[in-house]
Design brief:
By secondary structure, the chain is of the alpha/beta class. The chain is built from 8 helices and 5 strands, in the order βαβααβααβααβα. Helices cover about 50% and strands about 15% of the residues. Strands 2-3-1-4-5 form a 5-stranded parallel beta sheet, with helices on both faces. It is globular. About 35% of the residues are buried.
């Protein structure tokens, strides 16, 4: 099976914590290796983080306890700052070389978590991220959709991810944000049913990449 095109490809996996992104990223990476062997380089990255500077910002915004509460606008700018560094210094060069880039999260997370979860609004997040993301837009973003209560039952990193301490109402708002992303950016987003088995979700993801990653 051949690549759908010979240029670099940027694919993003999105969804609530506990939706299975990490598992599916590993399965997708293995599927690409099995189909293309050494013909294509694969870069796995993530947000926030993915570079020395971006990872430092990640520790500040996501895993450092502070006595004062972080303002949602401050939080949104920190995520955008980390994103700018990773997209410009890691993702863009790799895609320009023809690599396949797989990322755990992109600016859709900010729309869902800060725009809807923190209730800053979609337009505010787009304004903050317009320079951060620039022209580095995913070829396909796969939103793994699961029920918030199911996702919360799978949380495992409450010490390293502050969002895993949030309540159900917060994650219901975040899910609405992801559904908004799917409708707003329908040209390059796909909604994947994450309530099935790991194998079923993997098959749906592979099918969603026909014409983008492979023919």
């Amino acid at each position: 099976m051949a690549l759908a095109n010979e240029r670099g490809i940027y694919i993003v996996l999105e969804g609530l914590p506990g939706c299975g992104k990490s598992t599916q990223m590993g399965l997708l990476t293995n599927a690409i290796i099995q189909r293309f062997g050494d013909n294509k380089n694969i870069l796995n990255t993530y947000e926030p983080g993915g570079s020395e500077i971006a990872d430092a910002i990640r520790r500040i915004v996501q895993a450092t306890p502070f006595m004062e509460e972080m303002d949602p606008i401050c939080e949104a700018y920190l995520y955008a700052a980390s994103r700018a560094q990773t997209l410009k210094r890691v993702v863009k060069p790799a895609r320009n070389k023809g690599d396949i880039v797989l990322s755990d999260r992109n600016f859709f997370s900010s729309i869902a978590f800060q725009g809807y979860g923190r209730e800053l609004g979609y337009r505010t997040i787009i304004k903050i991220n317009s320079l951060a993301a620039g022209e580095v837009i995913p070829d396909r973003a796969l939103i793994i959709n699961v029920d918030p209560d199911v996702a919360m039952s799978r949380f495992h990193d409450k010490g390293g991810d502050k969002f895993e301490t949030m309540d159900l109402d917060f994650f219901r708002r975040v899910q609405k944000g992801y559904l908004f992303c799917f409708s707003k950016f329908s040209g390059y987003t796909m909604l994947v049913d994450g309530n099935g088995t790991i194998e079923e979700v993997h098959r749906e993801i592979c099918h969603a990449l026909v014409g983008i990653l492979w023919d």
